[in-house]
Design a protein that fits this description.
By secondary structure, the protein is α+β, with helices and mostly antiparallel strands. It is built from 17 helices and 31 strands. Strand 15, helix 11 and strand 16 form a beta-alpha-beta unit.
Length: 719
């Protein structure tokens, strides 16, 4: 007798129990970053680096995400998140989750890493541990190098409480007037223009008769033990360190902005001052009276105050990465030149010259090219492609988007050179790229001065897509060359972020990018693209259809398979569609580095979905989407995560991969990532992550190490 097919129960896939909170999921990502600092397998200076990254990440989290929640609370917003929380409930949950993490971070630094540094001749000392000779040296250093920069600010009826700048380190000083016996409060800012650590010369770095490699003292302690010079005639009672974080997100009413560039410049001036205070960090030893004074003046509560037992602002530990201790740092990994680009000369050749692949255009005409950074050199692939185009006499036009780029960008210099060479150059500079606004404004002005057509994107939308279009005259025809990438055109971050890029001259991609740039620079209601998935035009619908197609294959008795790699998975509609596919039997593997609001492994909902996160030497930044499609596999790469902002409020582009060899390469990359048992973490149904460990007798497999070795075996090392 035939076995009856199991019926799938009716379930409301919008139910809050099936979604993780976005902010709490981000905190879990930062916990994985912290774990790299706690993990004894990580080299010592790299552990300090991860502590610094953890702190830097938290600063931005408070400046943007916590600040936004506070604004919602103040505005009386009561809207529930997909996981069913109000803004006040989210703030409470953030505080409860984060406080133990911060305690663990500082405890580990003070009790584990600081002593470990000493074993390698690196002494980060407290002032009270110094010898008399060292104190005399610091006193002289203070008088000559520090004292002239300091400004003591009194707080009394004649001196209102001073403005405390965002992320500044400050001393709260209590002094007593010996004549009146009155106590007074003052603030001294630790100058950010000076190095955080004051170091000793070799002759003063002696420990037990041996010279140490490095010895230093936190700058704030040097100031704190010389405060009598700032308050002569007063008795210094005590001093305590504190630090604040302010709302730093820009509020831009684009519809009312006649000049977007000028509007953002004005908002940047406000950011330098900072908005309302969203976090106060104080030393544990600070008495309640001083703490209450600060909280009252900052207009914050105890729930927004974090006690720190140890040194504040650990992101300054990044400075110790410069120490000459190569055995305590990851060994340098030089990128390689992709095999097909090895024969390219330094300068472009004339159209049709020779049959060998002597320039980029010949290489691309002979077949699509995939570049995988940082394993393949960004400077000698994508950057060089743009530099070639700028110098090539047959290139008529270059159009590209710039979301983030470096302060000394060779690509921007190439665009300027192209304009000076008489080519039509269009640069879409995204002025609203968070915390890069000022840098982008500077580049926009320089580009405009060189004759580049600079546009700032569309009202209400950030242009996040990473695309280049090169138009070239070849004989009696015009050919278009394109680059569609997953990462920014920044050679510095290309050494630290894993990203992918497709170089192609496929006619349909060139036509699509022409339409996309016309959409970005002119007036257009472009609604259809030949190949590209473009947000906010067709990407949401196409991604949803691709997921549902896999479900249909399962319903028709075939198998379904999805593998997707991205930075964040947040969008409730996409998550619900993935749940539907899982319920239909589709096997789904998700590689999500950061935020993941999807709850995997829930019976009858997501039992066919697995989620991993990889946190390692490089920041996983590439986006890859694989759909089995009943044997006719489809793969895509591009700039978009499955987040509501990427699908609805940003201009994004994702390209299909039509070259079978490249499709195979991408599948191999995905398989390597999924097999990682060193830096991969499995997301559990309760929202926690468990780091993978190889079973007994099985070797460690770090995906990033494997991909590095593969690139080295295929390409030429860049020196």
């Amino acid at each position: 007798m035939a076995r009856a097919k199991e019926t799938v129960p009716e379930i409301n896939l919008s139910d809050s129990q099936y979604y993780f909170n976005r902010e709490l999921s981000w905190l879990e990502f930062n916990r994985r970053v912290l774990h790299e600092a706690l993990d004894a397998r990580t080299l010592l200076l790299e552990r300090l680096k991860f502590l610094a990254i953890f702190s830097s990440n938290l600063d931005e989290f408070f400046m943007v995400r916590v600040a936004a929640l506070k604004q919602q609370v103040e505005a009386g917003v009561s809207t529930l998140t997909p996981d069913g929380r109000t803004p006040p409930e989210q703030l409470d949950a953030i505080s409860q989750v984060l406080r133990p993490m911060v305690v663990e971070q500082h405890r580990h630094f003070e009790q584990v890493l600081r002593p470990a540094l000493i074993e390698h001749g690196v002494y980060l000392l407290n002032y009270i541990d110094l010898s008399q000779e060292q104190r005399l040296y610091l006193q002289d250093f203070y008088e000559k190098r520090i004292f002239p920069v300091l400004t003591p600010l009194a707080v009394d009826p004649g001196h209102p409480f001073p403005f405390i700048s965002n992320l500044s380190l400050n001393l709260a000083v209590v002094v007593k007037d010996p004549e009146t016996e009155e106590e007074h409060f003052a603030r001294v800012k630790v100058p950010s223009s000076l190095p955080r650590f004051v170091t000793f010369p070799p002759e003063l770095r002696q420990v037990d008769g041996k010279s140490s490699l490095w010895m230093g003292v936190p700058l704030e302690q040097v100031i704190g033990h010389n405060l009598e010079t700032l308050f002569p005639g007063m008795n210094i009672q005590e001093y305590y360190l504190f630090r604040i974080t302010r709302d730093a997100d820009l509020e831009i009413a684009e519809d009312d902005a006649d000049d977007l560039l000028l509007t953002i410049e004005q908002e940047l001036r406000k950011r330098r001052l900072g908005g309302s205070v969203v976090r106060l960090e104080v030393q544990t030893a600070m008495p309640e009276t001083v703490r209450d004074t600060l909280m009252q003046e900052m207009k914050i509560t105890s729930s927004e105050t974090y006690e720190i037992d140890g040194m504040l602002n650990l992101k300054d530990l990044m400075a110790l990465m410069a120490l000459p201790l190569p055995h305590l740092k990851d060994s340098p990994r030089r990128p390689v030149i992709p095999p097909r680009l090895r024969s390219i000369g330094e300068y472009p050749t004339k159209s049709g010259e020779g049959e060998e692949e002597r320039d980029f255009f010949t290489v691309i005409r002979n077949g699509d090219l995939l570049v995988h950074h940082p394993y393949y050199s960004f400077s000698l692939s994508v950057q060089r492609f743009i530099q070639f185009a700028a110098q090539d006499p047959d290139v008529l036009a270059i159009k590209m988007t710039l979301y983030r780029t470096s302060g000394d960008s060779p690509i921007v210099s190439a665009l300027i050179a192209a304009a000076e060479n008489g080519k039509q150059v269009v640069a879409l500079v995204e002025l609203k790229a968070r915390f890069d606004e000022e840098n982008n404004i500077n580049w926009a002005r320089r580009l405009e001065q060189a004759g580049v057509h600079v546009v700032y994107g569309l009202v209400g939308l950030k242009t996040h897509t990473k695309v280049v279009l090169v138009v070239r005259q070849e004989g009696d025809r015009i050919r278009r060359y394109v680059h569609v990438g997953t990462g920014n055109y920044n050679y510095k971050t290309a050494r630290l972020y894993t990203d992918l890029g497709l170089l192609s001259c496929r006619e349909e991609l060139g036509a699509d990018l022409t339409d996309l740039f016309n959409y970005l620079t002119g007036y257009s209601r472009q609604r259809a693209y030949r190949k590209l998935l473009v947000s906010p035009v067709n990407m949401r619908d196409r991604m949803t259809a691709l997921i549902r197609r896999e479900a249909e294959h399962c319903k028709n008795g075939n198998s379904g398979r999805i593998i997707a790699k991205m930075n964040s998975l947040v969008d409730p509609q996409i998550i619900a569609t993935l749940y539907e596919a899982s319920r239909a039997g589709v096997q789904i593997d998700l590689i999500v580095r950061g935020i993941c609001c999807l709850r995997p492994g829930v019976p009858h909902v997501s039992e066919n979905i697995r989620v991993i996160s990889i946190v390692g030497r490089y920041l996983e930044h590439s986006r890859i989407f694989y759909f089995q499609n009943n044997g006719e596999e489809e793969l895509y790469i591009g700039s978009a995560d499955w987040m509501t902002r990427n699908l609805d409020r940003r201009v994004e582009a994702v390209t299909p991969i039509d070259d079978p060899a490249i499709a195979k390469d991408l599948q191999e990359i995905l398989a390597i990532l999924l097999s990682d048992n060193r830096q991969a973490w499995d997301l559990q149904p309760d929202g926690s992550y468990v780091q993978r460990k190889p079973p007994a007798g099985e070797p460690e497999r770090s995906a990033q190490t494997i991909l590095t070795d593969m690139a080295l075996s295929m390409g030429s090392v860049v020196h």
